[in-house]
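Per reviewer request, we include the raw input and output of the structure prediction for the construct analysed in the revised manuscript.
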Amino acid sequence: MPRTLHAALSLALLTFALTGGAHAQDSGNTLSDAPQPQAAAPAPPVTGDSVTLRGTPLDILKDQGAIWTSPIRIRDRDLAVLVPLTLAATLAVTTDHQAMTSSRLNDASLNSHANTASQGLLGGFVAAPVLLYGLGHIHHDNHATETGILAGEAMVDGLVVDEVLKVATMRERPALDGAKGKFFQRSVGVDSSFPSTHSIIAWSSATVIASEYHGPLTQIAAYGLATGVSLSRVLAKQHFPSDVVVGSAVGWLIGRYVHHRRHKFDLDY
């Protein structure tokens, strides 16, 4: 199977699987840029039971069931997401080799700094849900607590999908075989380059946070830093462009799915 066709089909499968169940409508209310503690402010209304840490393992199992079985619920409107992402992934695959052999990336100092940056940014995305949950628990802020739990849930969901794809694709890393990026190489094992784990984790966490807090600064910070993670993985020569395009798309779709299916708050601030 040609590499371009394989990547297109891989992204198509994931997009079909993840968008089929993620059509819950956003709340029409405007969210603040960040949770602002106010001594006299009433607790925000909740629609249904609150999201709890205890229920997360079962929720993750339900997520996985929905993710991998939802292709049977595909609708025409899913094409608005599927087609652009598939085209982007296909274009990225066709330029992977050229991009990774560019003289601009053959800079050991740049590669090292980019790798350090990607690790630091990823650590921030992993720490953010823990911090939000902790602060929410201390200050009795159920919205922050929910955000922390859902962001963590989305990251775990992303890791599961990521590992399944890595085992299925077995793609060589850019440092191997002249950056040809061959798929289905048994010698790769579980260390497949496709997709980018860093991108999936960063974008799944960022999307939940940005979905919970709609303020422009939160949106810019969350998605901007997630983009930084993806770009730095290419600059570090750890992944091909198509790896991070697909990883980012998958993380974004998972974050949207988890938020739409799990969030309970209907906030008016």
